[in-house]
Write a structure and sequence with these properties.
The chain is of the alpha+beta class and about 220 residues long. The protein contains five helices and 14 strands. The strands form three sheets. Strands 3, 4, 5, 6, 9, 10, 11, 12, 13 and 14 form a ten-stranded mixed β-sheet that branches. Strands 1-2 form a two-stranded antiparallel sheet. The chain has a two-stranded antiparallel sheet with strand order 7-8. A hairpin with a 4-residue loop joins strand 11 and strand 12 (about 185-190).
């Protein structure tokens, strides 16, 4: 999240932003020289992402609840719904460009489904393709269109882990094979189709952006 958006969210806890002009908001967040148009842009981004509600008729603007109204009626026992950012798609096959700028919204997921009490470090990627359609996480296969939940805190996978790898600035979901004894890292497809693995030298420029921990079926 952009710094200005973080600052606006912070002051929304104590102030009704609707009562402030754009210039006053800029002063409140310690950036009096920022243009009103830039402040307006970041307010709109917060609304688009679901962090702020803006009711121009009532003159109110405030922070939204992480639990949407429809969910409150469904959850009869204490449970937390995580708002997990969706950061675009990753090919299960040839890789596509991946970056945080590909933010597509939020996936609302119960923490119970993930076995977590906090969503820290989690994000979602939409699987695109069939190269992992035999891979299973908790008995759920990764099929085209499914959401794969990635734990970004796990950057040192072990052989057999399903990971989101960034190779040549592109993202792909594959099974990680540490074959350093033969001088290589292998990113292997688990598919009913014939996909060639990706062979990497340990010193190549690539990143493991986390391990897949769950699959949300489409």
């Amino acid at each position: 999240m952009h710094m200005i958006q973080e600052k606006l969210l912070h002051i929304s806890k104590t102030k009704n932003l609707a009562t402030l002009s754009l210039r006053e908001m800029a002063k409140c967040i310690g950036l009096p020289d920022q243009s009103p148009q830039k402040i307006k842009h970041h307010l709109q981004q917060l609304q688009k992402k679901g962090f702020l509600t803006i009711d121009r008729e009532k003159g109110t603007m405030g922070k939204t609840s992480l639990v949407p109204s429809w969910a409150k009626g469904l959850l009869t026992k204490a449970s937390s719904l995580f708002s997990i950012p969706i950061l675009g798609k990753a090919k299960c096959g040839p890789a596509t460009i991946f970056a945080e700028q590909n933010f597509e919204g939020f996936l609302r997921v119960s923490g119970r489904l993930l076995g977590r009490t906090k969503p820290a470090g989690l994000y979602a990627i939409k699987a695109d393709g069939t190269s992992m359609n035999r891979a299973e996480i908790d008995h759920k296969k990764i099929e085209d269109g499914d959401y794969v939940i990635i734990d970004s805190s796990i950057k040192a996978p072990v052989t057999g882990d399903i990971v989101l790898a960034i190779v040549d600035n592109k993202a792909t979901i594959k099974r990680f094979i540490d074959d350093r004894k033969n001088g290589q890292i292998v990113l292997k497809a688990d598919s009913s189709y014939d996909y060639e693995p990706i062979y990497l030298h340990p010193d190549d420029e690539f990143n493991i952006n986390g391990r897949a921990i769950a699959v949300m079926k489409k």
